[in-house]
Write a structure and sequence with these properties.
It is a single chain. The protein is an alpha+beta fold. It has 2 domains: about 80 residues, Pseudouridine synthase; about 100 residues, Pseudouridine synthase. It contains 4 helices and 12 strands; from the N terminus they run E-E-H-E-E-H-E-E-E-E-E-E-H-H-E-E. The strands form 2 sheets. Strands 1, 2, 3, 4, 5, 6, 9, 10, 11 and 12 form a 10-stranded mixed β-sheet that branches.
Length: about 210
């Protein structure tokens, strides 16, 4: 089993950099037992999952050490006291304005096509801020900064699709052309910011985006 490199490690929590293509927790079947949580447990026997990234998404994952810290960090996520930032490359050329835009679109499970999600007026409130980092004119694409203000399943992927700019390489929500234009889902969890539950000091961790 591959050894993990911790971006941060202390007696209370871990910050790990998950590669694309690795599950956060085990799936069904023997071929889906290798995952971030299993690798973490092999190195830190008290490691516990607090939140997840999609298998296809790379980047920062926060894990608790022990049940008490898992509860504390879980509450911080529930109260939206943990801020998360992402970067993505999406189809289409968006204007570089220097301003943040907001996608405010409720999401619900697309039951006939589970685990897919969809924009639904009767769904859970969901908000994403986005801003253009730069345009990739030769690829007819845009590199975005993203900040989800809520934490719904597949939120960034569905929200960007809803404004007509699917993430390149998205095999769940992108059309065939968008899928062909990248070797992986072009979505990376770039930064995390939160107060350490043990002493209250503010922490911020960053991970370099592995694509351009």
């Amino acid at each position: 089993m591959t050894t993990l490199h911790a971006i941060h490690e202390d007696p209370h929590l871990l910050v790990l950099d998950k590669p694309a293509g690795l599950l956060c927790v085990p799936g069904r079947g023997e071929d889906k037992q290798d995952c971030l949580s299993a690798r973490a447990l092999a190195q830190w026997p008290d490691a516990r999952i607090v939140h997840r990234l999609d298998m296809a998404t790379s980047g920062l994952v926060l894990m608790a050490r022990g049940a008490a810290m898992q509860r504390a960090l879980g509450e911080a996520f529930a109260q939206r006291h943990v801020r998360k930032g992402y970067e993505a490359i999406v189809d289409g050329l968006l204007p570089v304005t220097g301003e943040w835009a907001l996608i405010d679109a409720p999401l619900a499970a697309d039951w006939p096509r589970r685990p897919l999600q969809k924009v639904d007026a009767g769904g859970k409130p969901s908000q994403t801020r986005w801003r253009v980092k730069h345009r990739l004119a030769d690829r007819h694409a845009s590199h975005l900064w993203l900040e989800p203000l809520t934490g719904r399943s597949h939120q960034l992927r569905v929200h960007l699709l809803s404004i007509g700019h699917p993430i390149l390489g998205d095999t769940l929500y992108g059309d065939e052309e968008a899928q062909r234009r990248a070797p992986r889902l072009m979505l990376h969890a770039t930064w995390l910011e939160f107060a350490h539950p043990a002493d209250g000091r503010m922490l911020r961790f960053e991970s370099l985006v592995p694509f351009a």
